[in-house]
Amino acid sequence: MMIKRSVVVQGHATSVRLEPEFWQEIDVYCKQNSTNLGQLIISLEKQQNSKTNLASLLRVFCLTKVKETINS
Questions:
Q1: Kindly report the CA angle at 19 between 42 and 44, in degrees rounded to 5?
Q2: Are the CB atoms for 70 and 36 separated by under 8 Å?
Q3: How crowded is residue 9: how many other Cβ atoms within 10 Å of its Cβ?
Q4: How many whole angstroms separate alpha carbon 23 and alpha carbon 4?
Q5: Is the overall model pTM greater than 0.85, yes or no?
Q6: Which of 9, 17, 71, 72 has the greatest CB tally within 10 Å of its CB?
Q7: What is the C-alpha to C-alpha distance for residues 39 and 19, in angstroms, rounded to an integer?
Q8: How far apart are CA 1 and CA 35, in angstroms?
Q9: In total, how many domains does the chain have?
Q10: What is the pLDDT of residues 22-71, one digit of tens each?
C-alpha cells in the first residue's frame, strides 16, 4: 500500500507516494530535527548533483539513515 502526501517545496506544490514504513521514518526524523517534509526535501535536493525523483530521493535518505544507525 502506498501513501500519497502533498507538499509545497519552494513555492511549488507536488506530491510523493511512498510505503508507510518510509513515511514513518521520515516523520520520526523530521520530529527529532524540528523540520518538515518540505524543508527536508530542499535540503536533500541541495546535496544532489542532479534532479532525482522525489520518492527515490526519500527512499535513499531513509536507507542511509538506517545504515548509519546500524554502523554506529
A1: 15
A2: no
A3: 16
A4: 10
A5: yes
A6: 9
A7: 20
A8: 26
A9: 1
A10: 999 999 999 999 999 999 999 999 988 767 799 999 999 999 999 998 99
Task: Say how many C-beta atoms besides its own lie within 10 A of residue 20's C-beta.
Answer: 10
Burial 29-39 (b: 16+ CB within 10 A, else e): eeeeeeeebbe
Q: Over the stretch 7-21, which tens digit does the pLDDT of each residue have?
A: 998 899 999 999 999
Q: How far apart are CA 46 and CA 31, in angstroms?
A: 21
- Write the secondary structure of the chain as one string of H (helix), E (strand) and C (coil): CCEEEEEEECCEEEEEEECHHHHHHHHHHHHHCCCCHHHHHHHHHHHCCCCCCHHHHHHHHHHHHHHHHHHC
Domain that holds residue 23: 3-71
